[in-house]
Amino acid sequence: MAGDAADGRRYVSGLLDAAAIAAGDALDAEVVVVGSGAGGAVTAALLAEAGFDVLIVEEGPWVEQESVRPFSLEQMDWQYRAGGVTVALGLPSIAYTEGRCAGGGTEVNSGLYFRPPVDLIDRWTTDYQIKDLDPDEIAGIADEVEQALDVGKVPGRKTPGSEILRRGAAALGWRHSEIPRWMTYPPGGDAVTGKRQSMTRTYLPRAFAAGARMVVDCRVDKLTVGKGVATGLSVRYSDGTRSEIRCRHAIVCGGAIQTPALLQRSGVRGRIGRSLAVHPTVKLSGRFAGEVNVPDDVPVHQVKEFAPDLSFGGSASHPGLVALALSDHWAEFSRAITEWRRICIYYAAITSEGRGVVQAVPGLRDPLVTYRLTHRDRETLRSGLARLALLMLEAGADEVYPSFRGAPVVRNRRDLATMQQSFAASKASVMTVHLCSTVPMGEALDRCGADSFGRVHGTSNVWVNDASLLPSAPGVNPQATVMAFAIRNVRRFIETNGRGDA
Amino acid sequence: MRSVPSAPLVGPFADRLLALDLPELDRPRRAEVVAFAARRVDGLPSIMRIGVLIIATLFRVALLVPGSSAFVRFVARTPLPLFGEYVRLIRSLGYAYVWETWPGTQPTGAAT
After folding, report:
1. Which residue has the higher pLDDT, A166 or B5?
2. Same domain for A492 and A380?
3. Could you confirm whether A301 is annotated as catalytic?
4. Any residues with CB less than 8 A from the CB of A414 and at least 6 apart, and which?
5. What is residue A502's predicted lDDT score, i.e. its pLDDT?
6. What residues in B contact A427, CB-CB < 8 Å?
7. Together in a domain, A420 and A441
8. Do residue A191 and residue A286 come from a single domain?
9. Domain co-membership, A95 together with A176
């Protein structure tokens, strides 16, 4: 469990000292879990609690939540891959972000919680031939997750940015709701006093309490796999030292980009990395009469009138991000930056028909990532941005600044038509934070990289247990779905493989 | 490419672009922003970094020939395919840093 060291730093028992290991400690474990995000942390906790000898290997550092400002450049330096500057190439390219720290994306995301969509589970079961996928079982697991993460609604006042979404949707008669978060609040607290119940506060301490070990700042270069059997991992510590870790089972939970890239580097073949799915989003900034910007938090309301094709929500809006959002037409929009306290950033996210590819490239550290939007995707982005701008006007925005090259300032409904005509996805700053589906699960071998419980096809002891397994992007924040599926899969693993000491 | 430091290639163009976009941003602040942009380019994923450094090299050469001010003005205002993405990257990094670090900065770059 976490505690306070004599020098005032937080420490976590179970967390191994990378320097000592690099000096020559040989590591081995019954189960190595690669990655410590929503998939990896629950996998490690449940396995350790079942008596397995578990070692978690995390590429990024352990960062205490209070030590960095949420959504800041400093946080991006510490907790995001490549400082948050990662792109899926295409026309347009799509900027994406990946957590790269203990706890993975759960440390840096918005903390919004959506139960796994039942209709989607039914569709996945049929289309991907997933065996024994019971929506009732998933719902029961979701109940457990909600309890473990303290999922609930914000007590007291919502932020002004959130209220804007509610007000605009209500004026238009559009379906909207407050999305619960996995946060705890002090008595009498409100939206900005919450503490996120990320993996470093929940499942990783549980894993440590049950005896799991963890090493951070340690990248897995490849798995040693022969004839479908993994015997170990080649790793590299942040000081450049290389080492080997022996294991009986390898469970890869590095997220939808790093997981397929690691499998490819390890020579694992099959439907790996061919079907990346994301929720592409376009943005705009709304300027209002009063101060609405809360730099360290995001709105909790979302608009689902057009879901699952299209949904609207709010983004982090500290002044650096406002400047970034205005930079697509700086000549026209720059005067607004001095009023950033009156500005919030919002997004329109679509459920995309397009797909992308993750491909490891020999000799290079990072994979090539590409994504192709379909014609329908582009049109949905166009209509989404227009509807979102309309919502802003209805909520009382004085001016709206869409984030695409050459965009006009929108002040009234007439401007909306001009905006819609001048929009092209290729001119927009398209981004995403939800990455899925690069090792889809199921028995349909022509489309699935792993079986119905995450074992990689063609291997006997290599498993995947993260967002890569979801057959498609779920149309909502996928963290709850990832966690529910991970728990389901690891329980099957425990049933199949027995206790570690058995 | 990982061993090639980006600052000598990225720095001069980033400096000129920011001087054009934010003419009243003082020199020490501009130097800080340029250093930040170079650090971020150093940390880019492999393939993206290779592409950026190739374009940065071409831009670096262009800055050495007479008339480079007109070149900077042209690429700053013209959304060229591919090359325009480099300009957009440097601008995005620069603006995000300026307004996160000094949120009272005017659109011209002047400090309040």
Report:
1. A166
2. no
3. no
4. none
5. 38
6. 79
7. no
8. yes
9. yes
